[in-house]
Amino acid sequence: MNANAKEAILAAAKRAAQARGYGGLNFRDLAAEVGIKSASIHYHFPTKADLGAAVARRYREDAMAALDALRAEAPDALAALRRYPETFRHALLAGNRMCLASFLAAEHDDLPEPVLREVLAFMEANVAWLARQLAEAGITAEEQAEPRARAVMAAIAGAQLMARSRADVGAYDALIAGYRQAGMLP
Amino acid sequence: MNANAKEAILAAAKRAAQARGYGGLNFRDLAAEVGIKSASIHYHFPTKADLGAAVARRYREDAMAALDALRAEAPDALAALRRYPETFRHALLAGNRMCLASFLAAEHDDLPEPVLREVLAFMEANVAWLARQLAEAGITAEEQAEPRARAVMAAIAGAQLMARSRADVGAYDALIAGYRQAGMLP
DNA sequence: GGTTGTCTACCATCTGATAGGTAGACAACG
DNA sequence: CGTTGTCTACCTATCAGATGGTAGACAACC
Q: Which residues bind DNA (chains A, B) (predicted)?
């Protein structure tokens, strides 16, 4: 913990925000979890908006790294697409958390502008990744890949929301299966 | 305003919660909007949990009344289904608000138990309505109507979330259109 | 006269944030 | 070598504002 406090703060804040949102983030609890004092968090992140933006940024970076790894491991675009829902399943499983960007999207009206910017960037990055795989897999035509990618992402965000309300990963799995049956997901 | 304060409180709280969630609800702002003092709200709703549960309950009742009216006006189940997305479109249009239940689902970890119960009840009621229309319209077999209804609801919740993050009803419309094209919605 | 609804006046708690201090690492200078 | 100054990363102590909630007075109404 003494090793690199800033990283520890980011990691803890990421977890907390996925469970309680931006409004649920608070310096004292975060400090206690990391093992320092709240004033020290202000040293690394002067304001809550700074912290929120940094967390959202880190979340996006981690997610993109995971998607790139997923694509690298998968034999083709279709296989990568099939495994896309797993990305979010993991958070539900570990503490009934959800996609940070989806949570923050709900909190839209209370977000500092830099935080909101990161949220939108996360979504655009996901849409771009999805659109690439969709086109490459030949599921949609090149020019229809983006709207379809947006639909996929929105549908998955909704599934997380529903599953979280019941604190039940099974609900998420069932919804994903339903999307597949309806031809929404490959 | 003096006419029926309790109703006015509920209405204002419903609007506020659709924009800022349960955590965003606060007695002082609510009182100011209604034109009374915060202590008076405590008279009608002793605790915040009571207020939250009452708001969620009212939201569910209003929504069900709207759905019943929709079904009564529509010539058949298919027509009613086609107009289902409009229910949520309205909130987005009026102040970039979203479905209260979806918002509260995100706040799952911070909800008093009675509030959470109402959220789940709202979802079950919507699923039941959707399943009925889906079966009646012959879109799915009777026994597959419920899982499909859940998928429809989750997809629409996700669309609201995405649209809200961009404060753009057009995004919602585009996503609904995408769902239709993918065969997810009639 | 009791019930109902609202008020004024508080209170305890939590929140983000600031001021000011301190211990240690490190480099520069003489 | 040792003194000096600077920087980093933390600390203690405190603040102002917001929040949910309570007590008790008061007036209107039945």
A: 26-45
pTM, full prediction: 0.95
Domains in chain B: ranges and CATH: 53-182 (1.10.357.10)
**What average pLDDT score do residues A33-39 get?**
95
Q: To 10 degrees, what angle do helices B77-93 and B48-73 make?
A: 140
> Which 8-67 residues of chain A approach strand D with CB closer than 7 Å?
31, 35-40, 43-44
Q: What share of chain B is helix, strand, coil (3-state, %, to 5)?
A: 80, 0, 20
CB-based contacts of B31: which residues, under 8 Å, 6+ apart? Answer: B37, B38, B40, B41
CA dist list (Å): B7 to B53, B55, B118: 14, 10, 18
The alpha carbon of residue A157 is apart from the nearest alpha carbon of chain B, in Å, by 5
Q: What is the ipTM of this complex?
A: 0.94
Q: What is the DSSP letter of A3?
A: S
